């Protein structure tokens, strides 16, 4: 039933395992330039950690710490122990790097294989990886996991829908990895090709790397004719394979044998009770090369209270509802793009693409939402469109507490993204930008 | 000195090893739909193979056999034994597929690691893979080999020169994998950025996947300030890692413990003596999932006679001088694009890009070579350019025995290819095309 026995471990045994591994991680971290200094300054060593909750004795690690430690300030092993690195960013901005030893790649692959097994994929199934490779951890991460599980892995890479379709058919693909915006795009491509959702053999899609709503997931399932499973990961915690839905599709089990997950108040940093939304903070328990202690993911989510029907004992994360740093402040309200997506996707007249534009008028910040609508609605009379427009404005205002300008546009007029979708176009010029700060 | 002991094996022991493995390959092949039928029809089994030369008892396997056997007519194991497949072609044309078991991926990775070790890379070196991933075997093939060797592998992927440069600098990269046309392009990018060849730490480039001349290799070495090593591979034989140069840069050792390599007359199919150019034919000796027997690679090359200074006993292949199927027949002469490249690259006035155009005039096939020339020559007076033009025409005529039209163009006017360079633009319309045959 499970890929490995630890999936059904009792909570008591899990706490003991976490404690042992937390101690080991702290011991390992003493060798890193960054943590070595920090731990010694605090007088903390492995002996100070006697329960998983003792992780709170540690200060947070933030993205800026990783930036300051670039390229190699977090390494705990000699250079020749490492066989891989991934980098988070391109030529601009301050990049961060994550390094992996052979053991790290091995345990990462194991976790990904466990995730794929949890959704129902098995050895011998055919699996097509429809995401880009290279520095994006979603490519190689899922690839290694699929091979580890024993799937016949088709490294299709991103884009080229026509070839993707040929591969899906020729090899009788059972499951795919695809990012949500491309999944929606590919669904429309299939419609154009006259392919019905049931024509393909596939049964499973792993979707991740982009925030998306429950409604978007159900659309993907309808369009593609399969079950779509949410995946959570971030490069700082290896990449994909951190938390994954099981067949119950009721939240993502975070692998607590490999990570300590906390939900904290993003302002005070205090722990929040199960069920409350806050910032996810993670500590690696199985990384030799570059452990991270209490890393603030900036992702907002909550633990789903209660037990899962599948029998796994690892707690479930709810879908990511936003990021602490993509919050838009407009007219004094805190708005998360995900709230807007959620409101739009609940309306069947809305086509999958939209764009949030932020601009200034009379020195005031303004928000406009461009929304693609279904062809039949777009072709309808003015009154029908005006009514839809009114409903959309009201719905969005209810959700974000600000009245946005709304523009209805023809389907296909917002360029579809084959990579991570860019949903916010911020044209505001602020004082601190003008001065070059 | 060697990555593994078999690199220095005596020829006698090698013959015994090849014979044993050839028998095993034939035995494995009996389970494949294609070979099972063929071998039984010929009454051949493992017992008929008592020396490596007995491979000649087998008929050739050609690309069209693989096409006819698509998608799975060559598999020798149950479906659930396979963990990877690569496909040779896109949406048009008849594709071919190569499948790998976990053992096959393992032995492939071992061979690639051996190649990288042979050029001088070592565990702990930093290695940037600057080629595309996905279905192209050059990406994952080199990646797995680099990790196997224990290099710190940076999966940069193709393109984005600015980011490539940042990675090369930030991580002190020692070696890269790069396709020759992109290496030349990247060299010019470095010049534009004001970077001298010696400014970067890198020492090794593995170049392959595209035919290129010795002159092109030396240009790459000068532009990049490193040693560039030729690599030979093809998806049907796994991908990269079939034959590789050692530090001596005097031909590519073909790993004869993993392959039986033959050079045959492309017309008669008869074996040619060492030193003569013919078509390379290969038999896999270490593949469980999809062995191929006497596969005609369509690549033209020769064995380099004599022993290599490095002490490796595996014979060396000369660089690929053309393909049996990219030969252009023009005015009754057989012309290989590589001959034209060779002639052009020998002239310092020529910039790295060129294009061969084939067209028709008065119902006759014509050839025109567009040649990018260095800026200072392009900016010179008419007389200088006319003199260069005359020398180029004469040089090409001497090489291909046909007088081509030659057009000198400004550097940068032929779009640089970041993928495999397309050097021939064939605009001829032949009768059999017109009729749709």
Automatic annotation (TrEMBL), chains A, B:
Residues 332-428 form the AMP-dependent ligase C-terminal domain. GO terms for biological process: phenylacetate catabolic process. Pfam families: AMP-binding, AMP-binding_C_2. Keywords: Ligase, Nucleotide-binding. It is an enzyme of class 6 (ligase). It catalyses: 2-phenylacetate + ATP + CoA = phenylacetyl-CoA + AMP + diphosphate. InterPro entries: AMP-bd_C_sf (IPR045851), AMP-dep_Lig_C (IPR028154), AMP-dep_synth/lig_dom (IPR000873), ANL_N_sf (IPR042099), PA_CoA_ligase (IPR011880). GO terms for molecular function: nucleotide binding; phenylacetate-CoA ligase activity. Its EC number is 6.2.1.30. Monomer. This is Phenylacetate-coenzyme A ligase. It comes from Rhodocyclus tenuis (Rhodospirillum tenue). The lineage of its organism: Bacteria, Pseudomonadati, Pseudomonadota, Betaproteobacteria, Rhodocyclales.
